[in-house]
Amino acid sequence: MNSKEYKEKFNAKKSPRQAIKMKCWDCCGGNSEEVKQCTCKDTCVLWPFRLGKNPWAPKRTLTEEEKEALVTRLKHARLASETPTNLGSSEQL
Ligand code: SF4
Predict the structure, then answer these.
(1) Up-side HSE of residue 13: CA atoms within 13 Å toward CB?
(2) Distance in Å, CA 80 to ligand 1 centroid
(3) Does residue 87 belong to any structural domain of this protein?
(4) Residue 32 falls within a domain, yes or no?
(5) How many other CB atoms sit within 10 Å of the CB of residue 49?
(6) What is the pTM of this model?
(7) Burial, 41: exposed, middle or buried (Cβ in 10 Å; 0-12, 13-18, 19+)?
(8) For residue 34, which atom of ligand 1 is closest to its CA?
(9) What is the domain extent for residue 36?
């Protein structure tokens, strides 16, 4: 990674969650599996926040309708991500 790429990656506007994710990713040499298996529970202040968690957030209880709405939204998001959006793009030619 050159200095321009580094600045773009680390100085870009990001949420605290994204910053923690990047820190863990960097800490584990870019290996996401290592982040999942991190054992530094007693030594790293970021440990409770790994993998997008917030230990201080109140536990969310969903109604059946909310669960169904989430499932539907997830299905649509998965379909959208699997659908090629750049077919016919002039950049592909
Ligand atoms: S939680 Fe684990 S992976 Fe994340 S920064 Fe701390 S030691 Fe590294």
Answers:
(1) 0
(2) 32
(3) no
(4) yes
(5) 19
(6) 0.60
(7) exposed
(8) 3
(9) 7-54
